[in-house]
Write a structure and sequence with these properties.
It is a single chain. The chain is α/β, with parallel strands linked by helices and about 220 residues long. The protein contains four helices and 16 strands. The chain has helices at about 45-50, 60-70, 95-105, 115-120, and strands spanning about 10-15, 15-20, 25-30, 35, 75-80, 110-115, 130-135, 140, 145, 155-160, 165-170, 175-180, 185-190, 200, 210-215, 215-220. The strands form two sheets. Strands 8, 9, 10, 11, 12, 13, 14, 15 and 16 form a nine-stranded mixed beta sheet that branches. Strands 1-2-3-4-5-6-7 form a seven-stranded mixed beta sheet, with no helix packed on it. The longest helix has 15 residues, at about 60-70. The chain is globular, with a radius of gyration of 17 Å.
């Protein structure tokens, strides 16, 4: 990498070349497709509706993060691996308005959401966003896009739901970093959304881990 911090790692899954991105997404260059998991639009709004004083601006953060990816990786479609909306509070006028403004900047971009468990409760997003809603598994070529990692599918499963993080130990301390967890039959993506937390994972035999930190991505020796 000539001393530069790697912004992506190239892997082959089910015969398809994919790029694992430091910004917690996957790029499929052959299809010009970005894949993100668990963006959870409206999560902060849902907490505020319950009286919990959480920061504002997470919707804007998520949309700016998507813009940064789209500016870097030539894309014709974005596939969201479930939990696009966090709860019914995500239909709040301010949240929907911000998403509609973002959509006008990308009128030709195809958007596909694989329904996750939060989407089932939140309901489908506003029709004006022009999003195709599908149920899992959603199979394209040799890959099956799902929300739940254990979904039975014809292709190699790309899923979310878990919000995986990996504990890198260093002496008595360590770091919990978002990670990709790759296995023979499935790959779990880190949560893309701001304010979503993470669940520590322990890779099984044969699984690979790639951690992301400070706009860089690295494989973890296991």
């Amino acid at each position: 990498m000539n001393g530069q911090r790697p912004t992506h790692c190239v892997v082959e899954l089910a015969g398809e070349q994919l790029w694992l991105l430091a910004h917690k997404a996957v790029y499929w260059p052959a299809r010009k497709m970005l894949v993100v998991a668990d963006i959870h639009f409206g999560k902060a709004a849902a907490f505020r509706a319950l009286g919990v004083p959480v920061p504002r601006g997470t919707t804007s953060q998520n949309l700016l993060a998507l813009d940064a990816l789209l500016a870097t990786y030539a894309s014709e479609e974005v596939v969201f691996l479930g939990d696009f909306l966090h709860a019914r509070a995500a239909h709040a006028p301010a949240t929907v308005a911000a998403m509609l403004v973002w959509r006008t900047r990308h009128p030709g971009l195809r958007l596909t959401v694989v329904r996750g468990n939060h989407d089932q409760h939140a309901g489908d997003p506003a029709a004006a966003l022009g999003i195709r809603m599908v149920d899992e598994p959603h199979t394209v070529g040799n890959l099956s896009f799902c929300h739940h990692p254990d979904t039975a599918a014809a292709g190699h499963v790309l899923a979310g739901h878990v919000h995986p993080v990996f504990h890198l130990r260093a002496g008595r301390g360590g770091l919990r970093l978002p990670c990709f967890l790759l296995g023979q039959e499935r790959t779990i993506l880190p949560s893309f959304g701001a304010f979503t937390g993470g669940h520590a994972v322990r890779p099984a035999a044969g699984e690979r881990v790639y951690v992301t930190a400070d706009a860089a991505i690295f494989p973890v020796p296991l």
